[in-house]
Amino acid sequence: MKIKSVHILLAIIIIIGGGILLASELDLYNTDRVKSPRKTAEGFYDIYDIRGSHTLEEIEKYYQLLASSVIEAFGLRPDTVPTLFQLKDMKEIFKPVELEGEEYVVETDTVKVFTSLYLKIPYVSDETFYLPEKTVNYLIENDKLIGEEKEYWQGHTFKLEYLDSEYLAASEFSKIVIEEAEGFKVTGKTTIKELLDGGITEEKFEEVTGFKVPEDKSVLVRDFVIDKGLEFREIKDKFAE
After folding, report:
1. How many domains would you assign to the chain?
2. What is the mean pLDDT of the chain?
3. Of 88, 152, 195, 196, which has the fewest Cβ atoms less than 10 A away?
4. Domain assignment of residue 45, given as a range
5. How many Å apart are CA 180 and CA 194, to the nearest integer?
């Protein structure tokens, strides 16, 4: 008996369609998997599932980590477009660094570790044991690192360098030069002694904080301010005025 070609075509369509349906039921066929990260048992999106193809907008969408936070923490251009910038693009911006005799590239895993520390979602990296100094300072200033964790990362930093010295806009370079020329800049690691040595008088300190300079000037400005119930970012900005 001859089988008409139309019947053969119909059979092929049924077999393929049935295979896709079965694979979908078994979660073997999932077109969203390429982009959408899986969720953990606790209901959080899994940091292990962050990919280099994810954009800053997608990181914000899935992990509730603002694109502006990543941009500031890594020193990306302020006009970086979150919908277009992918995590893997970082390797085209920053120079590789040598850490403990091996080359390290700032890329997707660096952002995974940053996301883990910022959101307090567990992630154990097998390649990122150092972070950019700028990134660690950002975490400290936003109260995301404390205790032993803070001590560890403060001792495991490196300087970020751009592959293209003109990566930042000319206006940004001017801003950096002006800020450095204008004087001392308070960070999360600045002690009260360093603040005073940088030109802030004891009168100015009391005016800004509402408290006299303590006897122990080795205390971090940030710790002193928080202990007094004040907002560090606000006080830091006042010292810069």
Report:
1. 2
2. 82
3. 152
4. 40-158
5. 15
Q: What CA dihedral angle connects 137, 140, 145 and 151, to 10 degrees?
A: 60
Tens digits of residue pLDDT in 43-86: 889 999 999 999 999 999 999 999 999 999 999 988 889 999 99
Helix (H), strand (E), coil (C) string for the chain = CCCCHHHHHHHHHHHHHHHHHHHHHCCCCCHHHHCCCCECCCCCECHHHCCCCCEHHHHHHHHCCCHHHHHHHHCCCCCCCCCCCEHHHHHHCECCEEECCEEECCCHHHHHHHHHHHHCCCCCCCCCCCEEHHHHHHHHHCCCCCHHHHHHHHCCEECCCECCCCCCCHHHHHHHHHHHHHCCCCCCCCEHHHHHHCCCCHHHHHHHHCCCCCCCCCCEHHHHHHHCCCCHHHHHHHHHC
86 and 187 share one domain: no
Residue type, 124: V
d(CA 30, CA 28): 6
Do 124 and 232 sit in the same domain of this protein?
Answer: no
Residue 141 lies in a domain: yes
Same domain, 101 and 210: no
Contacts of residue 146, defined as CB under 8 A and 6 or more positions apart, other chains included, come to: none
Q: Cα separation of 196 and 117, whole Å? A: 31
d(CA 153, CA 130): 7
Cβ-in-10-Å burial (0-12, 13-18, 19+) of 177 comes to exposed
